[in-house]
Each structure stands twice: as structure tokens, then as C-alpha cells.
Specification:
Layout lengths: L11 E2 L2 E2 L1 H18 L9 E5 L3 H14 L2 E7 L6 H15 L3 E5 H5 L12 H16 L5 E3 L4 H14 L2 H5 L15 E3 L7 H11 L15 H15 L3 H20 L5 E2 L6 E2 L5 H9 L2
Parallel strand pairs: 3-4, 3-6, 4-5, 6-7
Antiparallel strand pairs: 1-2, 8-9
Length: 291
């Protein structure tokens, strides 16, 4: 089978693209996503949340290629046998492409690694709260912080919040995270929003990125893994389901945000960061760890 754009042999089948045209297809898709959702404005100083995995390397590379003014921010939770390997890949990647980055650890910021914290709603929840807190803290001074969330990730998040009946968290999703802009919170954007996980995996492989393709050892225990597996099974039987979910969600998202934009928003009395209660979740976790 040949590429639909040239006589070269296709490396993917749907649609059939050669290596060169598939890479171009993904990069143009990301650029169209940025334009469609107005994710980046001229002159923006962009931080990129990076882990060393396929998604973060891809978004970091493409944004660096498109805009140049990017800086990687990596969080080391201290997950043995996993984070040390992905951060090594990240260092190799950033050195190869001359992209500046910094690594910030739970140990240095909170005094403990992930395994030493009390579990709040599951280890993935605890990890996510502290990661987002530290990421936002280190992104101060940047106009946007891009994450590597792809279409599959977003689809899982949408279904998880629907299944839990949490419309407020559902309203915070989308290509631009959050309901309204708040002081002390750097706007998060998702340039890979319309790219599937399969597309990103293929792109990273074809580009030769130093990706280990390993999964966090805690991932299998989370609610997300059950939702992911269920969605994958449905997608296999009914192709296009995930894309339909996301496009439907995008149609109702403005109404969801409007519904919750008046929700009371305060700032943590301990750290001063945006919060939904007097003490933010991150401070609650850290405080419990030292009781």
C-alpha cells in the first residue's frame, strides 16, 4: 500500500501515509487544534509539563518547532523503577533538541516522596493533587502551561466524571483546563487534544524519540484504568466512539462552564493558592503527612 500523497510505502493504514506525510499530518493537526481553540497567543511564554513519556516529548517537540519559546517542567514524584527511567529519557531528548528543562521533586518541595504520603482517595489521586500543585507553582511567570493529554486521556476523564456524577470537575475539562482564569493559576492547555494515543505513539516511534514506553506501576490500580479498558473495548467494536464522545462533550462544554462559573472560589489560607476550601487539597495532604 502506498501513501495517498506520494508513491512511498505507507507506514500507517488509516489513512495510508508514508513516514514523512504522517509526521506532517500530526504536526498540522496539532497546529489546527491550537488555532481552533485559541490555545496560544502571539508572544506567549510557554511552559510544558514533561514526564519523559511519548505524549510529553511529542508536545514539547512540536511546540518547540512551532514557537521556539518553550521550557520543560518535570515533576519527580519518586516512583522507583519508573520515574527515574522516564526522566533519563527526558534528559536525553532535551539535550538532543537543545530544549531547556528543569526537574522538581516531591522530596525537595514537600520533604517526602510519593510513597511516604497518606493516601487520599487512592495513590493516583494523592499523586495528581501534589503534581498539579507543584507544576502550577513552577509555572508561575509563564502565560500558558501545555500538557500532553491526548484524545484518549480526555475521553477517559469525561467518562470518569460522568460516571461519578461530578459535573463541576467535568466543566473544568476541555482544551483549556479550568472554568475561569484565576490569579495564582497558570492556564493549562492541551495541544494534543484531538490526537489519539495510537497516533502519538506512532509519531514518537517514527521520530525516534527516546521513549521507554513503560506504564506507571500505580496506574493499574486506578479507576481510570477500568474506564480506559472499557472505552478501548467499545472502540474496537464501534470505531469512532471516542471521537464522538469528545465532539459531543465540546458541544456541551460552554453550557457546563456557564453553569459553574459563579461557583464560590477562594484561596488557601495556608499557601495562598486557588482552592475550593479554606485549606487546599495539597496542603491537606502535606499537613496529614506530618501529623
Amino acid at each position: 500500500m502506498n501513501c495517498v500523497h506520494c508513491s512511498s510505502k505507507a507506514v500507517v493504514s488509516s489513512p495510508p501515509y508514508c513516514k514523512e506525510h504522517f509526521i506532517l499530518y500530526i504536526e498540522e493537526k496539532v497546529q489546527r487544534t491550537i488555532e481552533r481553540f485559541r490555545l496560544i497567543d502571539a508572544g506567549d511564554k510557554i511552559a510544558v509539563a514533561v514526564s519523559g513519556g511519548k505524549d510529553s516529548q511529542t508536545v514539547l517537540y512540536i511546540l518547540h518547532k512551532l514557537y521556539g519559546n518553550v521550557h520543560g517542567i518535570a515533576i519527580d514524584e519518586g516512583i522507583p523503577g519508573y520515574r527515574d527511567r522516564t526522566l533519563k529519557d527526558l534528559e536525553t531528548f532535551c539535550t538532543t533538541h537543545s530544549i531547556p528543562f528543569g526537574i522538581h521533586s516531591f522530596q525537595n518541595r514537600f520533604g517526602k516522596m510519593l510513597g511516604s504520603f497518606p493516601v487520599h482517595g487512592g495513590i493516583c489521586t494523592t499523586c495528581g493533587v501534589l503534581r498539579r500543585y507543584l507544576l502550577n507553582e513552577r509555572a508561575a511567570g509563564y502565560d500558558k502551561i501545555a500538557t500532553g493529554h491526548n484524545l484518549d486521556d480526555e475521553c477517559q476523564s469525561v467518562m470518569m466524571n460522568l460516571l461519578k456524577g461530578n459535573l463541576f470537575l467535568l466543566a473544568k475539562l476541555g482544551p483549556k483546563s479550568g472554568i475561569v482564569l484565576r490569579n495564582g493559576f497558570t492556564q493549562r492547555i492541551k495541544p494534543l487534544y484531538l490526537c489519539t494515543e495510537k497516533e502519538i505513539t506512532t509519531y514518537a516511534f517514527l521520530k525516534g524519540f527516546p521513549v521507554d514506553f513503560i506504564e506507571c506501576p500505580n496506574a493499574a490500580d486506578g479507576f481510570r484504568s477500568s474506564v480506559r479498558d472499557g472505552l478501548n473495548n467499545i472502540e474496537m467494536q464501534h470505531a469512532g466512539t471516542k471521537c464522538n464522545i469528545i465532539e459531543t462533550f465540546l458541544n456541551i462544554l460552554p453550557s457546563l462552564k456557564e453553569l459553574h462559573e459563579g461557583t464560590r472560589q477562594i484561596y488557601c489560607t495556608h499557601c495562598g493558592k486557588p482552592s475550593m476550601s479554606e485549606l487546599c487539597k495539597a496542603c491537606m495532604i502535606v499537613e496529614d503527612a506530618y501529623v
